[in-house]
Amino acid sequence: MKSNTLIYFTAALMLGCFSLGTYAQAQTAACNKTAYLSFDTGNMSVAEKVAEILKRQNVKATFFLANEKTFRGDFALDDSWKPYWQELAKEGHHFGSHTYDHTYFVKDGPKGEVFEKPQFGPKAGMTVMYNEAAMCKEIRRVDQRFQELTNQHLQKIWRAPGGKTSPTLIRMGDMCGYQHIGWAPAGFLGDELNSDKYPNQILLEKASKGIQNGDITMAHLGIWSRRDPWAPAVLEQLIINLKQRGFCFGLLPKNSENQSK
Predict the structure, then answer these.
(1) What are phi and psi of 220, to 5 degrees?
(2) pTM for the whole thing?
(3) 60 and 102 in contact (C-beta within 8 Å)?
(4) What pLDDT digit, counting tens, does each position of 142-193 carry?
(5) Is residue 260's pLDDT more than 70?
(6) Is residue 226 a contact partner of residue 199, using CB atoms and an 8 Å limit?
């Protein structure tokens, strides 16, 4: 009796291991490409929706943070957003700097400096010259604030607002220890475009077909300029469509080990 039970148990165990192995191989075979979802803060109006979709789809993304004014009238790095950032950090997403005051590159300066225009903060709307130390401080301020909010550091990555850069600006970030991360042409998801000219269904179809292996995407956690919000209508179906094309979703920088299917 005991012998028969042992035989049955061993057979069941071997079958289970075989089934799990076969399932894992099937998952690996089905997942032969990687896309990198990334989000800039924006006005945060769809931040909760984005987090909900990512959690439901078991997908990780990379968030680039600036202290931007939100739809609630506060700012994205205020204490009022602390639970949101803490939850995303707990779930294993990655984070980079988007410059503290959402500081736009204007042009190179005369002696290795750059001219920048902060969108927020005490110098909002002014064109200011930044040397390497000042630019480094602007990038690192986000890391310092994020640590206060979540007790963890950003990844050593940043993204210039609007993706506007120059070799001088990129070098400044490199010297500060932060790798600049842009996005692929096909990864521009169009959430800041006019929704009458670029309806959500068109943007969904374009991204679903156009994104290729290794592409980084870019959207916002809310945008002032779009009447018909992109994320609630497009994000989840885009993830599903990409999964059906064999995509997994990686974290930035691209040498990160974590990957979600």
Answers:
(1) -120, 160
(2) 0.87
(3) no
(4) 999 999 999 999 999 999 999 999 999 999 999 999 999 999 999 999 999 9
(5) no
(6) no
C-alpha closest to that of 221 among 51, 36, 35: 51
> Chain-centre distance of CA 82, in angstroms?
18
Give the type of residue at 104: Y
Structural tokens at position 112: 């290795």
Helix (H) or strand (E) holding 157: strand 157-158
Q: What are phi and psi of 122, to 5 degrees?
A: -65, -20
Interhelix angle 47-57/82-90, nearest 10 degrees: 20
Distance of alpha carbon 251 from alpha carbon 228, whole angstroms? 28
Using CA atoms, how far apart are residues 199 and 203, in angstroms rounded to an integer?
7
Neighbours of 209 (CB within 10 A): 11
Rounded to 5 degrees, φ, ψ at 35 are -115, 155
Contact predicate 158/174, CB 8 Å? no
Packing angle between helix 47-57 and helix 231-244, nearest 10 degrees?
20
Question: CB neighbours of 175 closer than 8 A, spacing ≥ 6?
Answer: 132, 136
